[in-house]
């Protein structure tokens, strides 16, 4: 992807009032609906109807660690490209989880997607594509991916969990070798 005409990520961070995200990248909450609903994913606990954030990966913070939300999350692409890895736990311990990789980007003909719905209980991580980082060495200050995330019912930190090494091992109990590629992307305890 050609990033030569993309906005500088430092400008996006400043213009959109983004701050460092604990999972990697940058974010800003842009909306939290005042109306609350009982969340079917949090034992009926009241949650905002929906929340919305900007989320930005940059060359200096190119990876979001593996995490899950109890609520569903709609991702909407704005600029750049990023690969999302989705890990759906197996219903039985003797079967490995399902792994899906989706590139969010502007090129639908190449299979890139502008929208991605991630369901409840699905582990996800995001990263800038290595080939984009390699190809745009002269434009690293412009290399990034900006998306919007809409969480329904709204986001609450208590509904968010990072994958730890122990959790990764439990997730891949049927295929321990399959866990190795994800080890660098778990939250260190």
Explain how this protein is built.
- The strands form 3 sheets. A 6-stranded antiparallel β-sheet has the order 1-2-5-12-7-10, with no helix packed on it. The protein has a 5-stranded antiparallel β-sheet with strand order 9-8-11-6-13, with no helix packed on it. A two-stranded antiparallel ribbon has the order 3-4.
- The longest helix is centred in the N-terminal third of the chain and has 7 residues, at 9-15.
- By secondary structure, it is mainly beta.
- It contains 4 helices and 13 strands.
- A hairpin with a 5-residue loop joins β1 (19-20) and β2.
- The protein is globular and about 45 Å long.
Structural class: mainly beta
Shape: globular
> First CA to last CA: what distance?
35 Å
SSE ordering? HEEEEEEEEEEEHEEHH
Task: Output mean pLDDT.
Answer: 94
Number of strands: 13
Question: What percentage of the residues does DSSP assign to strands (E)?
Answer: 35-45%
Read across the widest sheet, the strand sequence of neighbours is 1-2-5-12-7-10
Number of helices: 4
Task: List unreliable stretches of 5+ residues.
Answer: none
- State Rg: 17 Å
């Amino acid at each position: 992807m050609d990033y030569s005409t993309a906005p500088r990520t430092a400008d996006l961070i400043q213009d959109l009032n983004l701050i460092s995200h604990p999972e990697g990248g940058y974010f800003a909450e842009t909306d939290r609906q005042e109306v609350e609903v009982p969340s079917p994913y949090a034992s009926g606990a009241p949650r905002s109807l929906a929340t919305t954030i900007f989320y930005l990966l940059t060359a200096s913070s190119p990876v979001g660690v593996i995490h899950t939300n109890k609520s569903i999350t709609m991702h909407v692409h704005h600029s750049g490209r990023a690969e999302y890895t989705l890990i759906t736990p197996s219903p039985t311990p003797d079967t490995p989880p399902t792994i899906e990789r989706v590139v969010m980007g502007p090129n639908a003909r190449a299979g890139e997607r502008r929208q991605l719905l991630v369901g409840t209980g699905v582990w996800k991580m995001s990263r800038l594509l290595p080939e984009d980082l390699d190809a745009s060495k002269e434009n690293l200050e412009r290399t990034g991916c900006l998306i919007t995330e809409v969480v329904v019912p709204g986001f609450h930190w208590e509904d968010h969990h990072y994958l730890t090494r122990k959790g990764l091992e439990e997730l891949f109990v049927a295929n321990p070798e399959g866990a190795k590629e994800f080890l660098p992307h778990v939250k260190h305890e």
